[in-house]
Amino acid sequence: MTDTLHAIAQNDTPAVVDVPQGWNGLVIWMVGRFGSGILLAIACGWALGRVYEDHAKQTDRLMVILERRAVVDSEMSSALLQLRTALNEVSRESRNAHAQARQ
After folding, report:
1. What number of CA atoms fall less than 13 Å from residue 76's CA on the CB side?
2. Would the pTM of this model clear 0.90, i.e. be above it?
């Protein structure tokens, strides 16, 4: 990316001006070419990049949490089904025991 920007800077300036390689030279060229407002634009672009990077990390973490929650919910549903089956069995045995006690 630096090489591409450097090539643009070299083509945009007169032949007698040599834009130094690296970010320092590019920043100096940008300020000379576009004014000091470019520094604010660079700072805002950098900050916006950080915000989106943080947002992506938070989204990834949330997806992991949701995936784990889905597993827990599935296991809970299975456990509740087993509990219901066991309670139905206990209830049936209890009814049978009461019916036999009445006889």
Report:
1. 6
2. no
